[in-house]
TrEMBL record:
<keyword id="KW-0853">WD repeat</keyword>
<dbReference type="InterPro" id="IPR001680">
    <property type="entry name" value="WD40_rpt"/>
</dbReference>
<dbReference type="InterPro" id="IPR036322">
    <property type="entry name" value="WD40_repeat_dom_sf"/>
</dbReference>
<feature type="repeat" description="WD">
    <location>
        <begin position="188"/>
        <end position="231"/>
    </location>
</feature>
<dbReference type="InterPro" id="IPR015943">
    <property type="entry name" value="WD40/YVTN_repeat-like_dom_sf"/>
</dbReference>
<feature type="repeat" description="WD">
    <location>
        <begin position="675"/>
        <end position="718"/>
    </location>
</feature>
<dbReference type="InterPro" id="IPR019775">
    <property type="entry name" value="WD40_repeat_CS"/>
</dbReference>
<feature type="repeat" description="WD">
    <location>
        <begin position="454"/>
        <end position="490"/>
    </location>
</feature>
<dbReference type="InterPro" id="IPR011047">
    <property type="entry name" value="Quinoprotein_ADH-like_sf"/>
</dbReference>
<protein>
    <submittedName>
        <fullName>WD40 repeat protein</fullName>
    </submittedName>
</protein>
<feature type="repeat" description="WD">
    <location>
        <begin position="233"/>
        <end position="276"/>
    </location>
</feature>
<feature type="repeat" description="WD">
    <location>
        <begin position="143"/>
        <end position="186"/>
    </location>
</feature>
<dbReference type="Pfam" id="PF00400">
    <property type="entry name" value="WD40"/>
</dbReference>
<keyword id="KW-0677">Repeat</keyword>
<feature type="repeat" description="WD">
    <location>
        <begin position="565"/>
        <end position="587"/>
    </location>
</feature>
<dbReference type="InterPro" id="IPR020472">
    <property type="entry name" value="WD40_PAC1"/>
</dbReference>
Length: 750
């Protein structure tokens, strides 16, 4: 019956000119329900192998079926789809096609890129190539709904279903069915500050959650009814950062710790404090409970130490990390390893350490990630004791605590730092749950890898530009990983070995020709450098005159008939360097500059335009230090670039409030109303010419690039990406390059 029904529905789909099904004209019932019928009929693989069906199918009914793919082609298509679930949910078919094509390029599957681009609109921006260093085939689901950072995460069972409980900066507690990915019940509200941590337990047979917040309160929630139990528990006098549950003297209690230098114990049955608080704990960021020799003990990780506290005597037993110096701990958990109790910590140095309680020493240490280790959770996987750790670089890693090696592939795909991790089993399969910014991801550890992604930068790409090297077009990128890369736009998209003789992140970046040779001028924290792209080496020593001051900007302009590089520090020291010779020609002091600055020449004068998150746009005469103009109001500015519109000098700024502004220079008068369209913070802006029009290109945390007609202040195009855009550039011949996370993509309209 279901087989016949599936066949009839498929045959009813109109045909395109090439004889293939035209899913754009399929009946809405087929798009919404065909996957369900095909799964029952045993015909799902044929459907999932058709990438055009995935472009048009209803997201909500398609998503649960993606994990049922069996054939290689169906599994490849669904792996590409699952890798960008968090973006696809609310997109129309044209935008979904664009994102899927980018993901196919990241997986490095040319035939899939060609198939998706082949049905795109004629003048649509189509991905030519992309790197896939921040890509994983293990993504099972992406859960969205919170509107702020999700720092609190725990797993439990509610009505027999595996459930994740989350708390957010948006002050709500939410539940998620881990099998379907659907939200469970309604959001639970009551906290008046960001929720910092959550712990789950059972009270009188009911599943409950305990949350702690910056509002200095502890709350108890009935997960069966999605309602608060009793009044908030109060007593802390500063933000509460951590909570854990245990049984103490026959009572179910919660232990909380925060930045008021105390630990407190709460009877969950009565909502009352149990005994006096433990004092002298320092600024507690994290805690875990364990029983040692029959005594309940709390392990605390603070901003400077890892310590053990006896809950019976309310006294400190010992400092675990004695001799380790001052360490800022982000997370701690406890487990047993080879029959002995151990603590596992994560800290701001990016280390995950295993501590022996009895001997007070480190048993093992896991490193290899940039930035801090934010979270850690323990589990038994395939009979082995493992720790799951989340990192600032947006990844999660599973570590075998006995073999002291990583288990499986790196779980990568978040565009923001991982804030919390948890482990669960779904239908007998191990999964990891991670949170980053406002999104949860569920990772299926049993999934195999697909494609052959091109790997490049290991941290976020901050700058991108175009050049021509040896007669061939290339894309040049700069990153937080302190390297610059040159990407060959040939049939095989690849980058050169990283140019990594730098001491800090590479940003900003400008490419141009100098005496017939392609060069890149880029800024670092401590100055600027000029590199010969054909030779792959520096042309001059670094442009740095004040080694103890942080660089604020680097710009290249023509001044008095010569090309110069202008560098500046946040303290207001501005230097002018001859681009050809590398000589320092002039020094100026202009007063403090903003977080983002660009320079240009107006009427023969060198001027600097500067913005910050909380200050007005300011324009300064670099020679005299005199203010030439200031915007009438402050804006939460994120980026600025300067250029010309109808031969008039202008600045274009973008902001946290998702708007783009045009300003007339040097007076800082707004040109028309702000340009709107982005739905989140706008991170980057650049100016270019497209089809004879002056345009601005902006990249946003809303996973898009927008191209704006500056004359009419309207949107010309929107390019949808699998992640937030941190840099964008348009070449003279119409190639668009943009960065999202660690990766870079190249688009064409041809």
């Amino acid at each position: 019956m279901q087989r016949a029904f599936t066949t009839v529905l498929r045959r009813a789909v109109p045909y395109a000119v090439d004889g293939s099904p035209d899913w754009a004209r399929a009946h809405p019932y087929a798009l919404r329900h065909l996957a369900t019928h095909a799964a029952v009929a045993g015909l799902l693989d044929t459907l999932l192998a058709d990438i055009e069906y995935l472009v048009h199918a209803d997201y909500e009914t398609l998503m649960p079926r993606l994990l049922d793919a069996e054939s290689d082609e169906a599994q490849l298509n669904t792996a590409v789809f699952r890798s960008c679930l968090h973006v696809l949910r609310h997109l129309d078919a044209a935008a979904r096609r664009q994102v899927l094509a980018v993901e196919a390029a990241r997986f490095n599957v040319p035939h899939l890129v060609e198939a998706l681009n082949g049905r795109a609109a004629k003048r649509a921006w189509k991905p030519m190539a992309a790197s896939g260093g921040q890509l994983s085939s293990n993504l099972r689901n992406a859960l969205t709904g919170h509107t702020g950072l999700v720092e609190a995460l725990a797993c439990t069972e509610v009505n027999g279903r595996p459930t994740a409980v989350t708390g957010s900066e948006d002050r709500t507690v939410r539940m998620w069915d881990l099998i379907t990915g659907d939200p469970v019940g309604s959001p639970m509200a009551g906290h008046t500050g960001a929720i910092e941590a959550v712990a789950c337990t059972y009270l009188d047979g009911r599943p409950v959650a305990v949350t702690v917040s910056r509002d200095e309160s502890v709350r108890l929630w009935d997960l069966g009814t999605c309602r608060a139990i009793g009044a908030p528990m109060s007593g802390h006098s500063n933000r509460i950062r951590a909570v854990a549950c245990l049984e103490l003297d026959g009572r179910q209690v919660a232990v909380t710790g925060g930045w008021d230098h105390t630990l407190r114990v709460w009877d969950l049955g009565t909502g009352q404090a149990v005994g006096k608080p433990v004092t002298g704990t320092g600024l507690v960021n994290t805690l875990a409970c364990v029983v040692l020799k029959g005594r309940p003990v709390v392990v605390t990780g603070s901003t400077d130490s890892l310590a053990l506290w006896d809950l019976t005597t309310r006294r400190r037993l010992r400092r675990l990390d004695r001799g380790a110096g001052s360490v800022w701990y982000k997370a701690v958990t406890c487990t047993e390893l080879n029959g002995r109790p151990v603590a596992i910590s994560a800290d701001r140095q990016g280390r995950v350490r295993v501590w022996d309680f009895r001997k007070r020493r480190i048993l093992s240490e896991f490193q290899g990630h940039e930035g801090w280790a934010s979270s850690v959770s323990c589990a038994v996987m395939d009979g082995k004791q493992v720790a799951v750790a989340g990192y600032q670089d947006g990844t999660a890693q599973i570590w075998d605590l006995e073999d002291r090696r990583p288990v499986g592939a790196l779980l990568c795909g978040h565009a923001f730092p991982v804030l919390a991790v948890a482990y669960a089993e779904l239908e007998g399969q191990p999964v990891v749950i991670t949170s980053a910014y406002d999104t949860l991801r569920i990772w299926d550890l049993s999934r195999r890898a697909f494609g052959s992604p091109v790997v490049g930068h290991t941290q976020r790409v901050l700058a991108v530009d175009h050049a021509v090297v040896d007669g061939r077009p290339v894309v040049v990128t700069g990153s937080e990983d302190t390297t610059m890369r040159i990407w060959q736009l040939s049939a095989e998209f690849r980058s050169t070995e990283p140019l990594n003789h730098h001491t800090s992140e590479v940003n900003p970046l400008t490419c141009k020709m100098l005496n017939g040779r392609p060069i890149a001028i880029f800024g670092t924290t401590y100055g600027a450098q000029v590199w010969d792209l054909a030779m792959g080496r520096a042309m001059h020593p670094p442009f740095a005159d004040q080694a103890d001051e942080l660089g604020a900007f680097t710009a290249c302009v023509e001044l008095n008939g010569r090309e110069v590089v202008v560098t500046g520090t946040m303290q207001g020291s501005v230097r002018v360097w001859d681009l050809a010779t590398g000589a320092l020609t002039e020094r100026f002091a202009v007063g403090n500059l903003g977080m983002r600055t660009d320079a240009c020449v107006i009427d023969g004068r060198l001027v600097a335009a500067s913005v910050s998150l909380d200050k007005p746009l300011r324009v300064l005469d670099v020679t005299t230090g005199r203010s030439l103009g200031q915007s009438p109001h402050s804006h939460p500015f994120r980026a600025i670039t300067v250029g010309r519109l109808n031969d008039r000098p202008i600045a274009v700024t973008c902001s946290e409030s998702s708007t783009v502004h045009i300003w007339e220079l040097p007076g800082c008068h707004p040109v028309g109303e702000p340009m709107t369209g982005h739905t989140r913070s706008v991170w980057t802006v650049t100016l270019a010419e497209l089809d004879g029009r002056s345009v601005a290109l902006t990249g946003s945390a809303d996973n898009t690039v927008r191209i704006w007609d500056l004359e009419h202040r309207t949107t010309l195009d929107v390019i949808h990406l699998p992640g937030p855009c941190s840099a964008v550039s348009l070449s003279d011949d119409g190639l668009l390059a943009c960065a999202f996370g660690n990766d870079v993509g190249v688009f064409s309209r041809e």
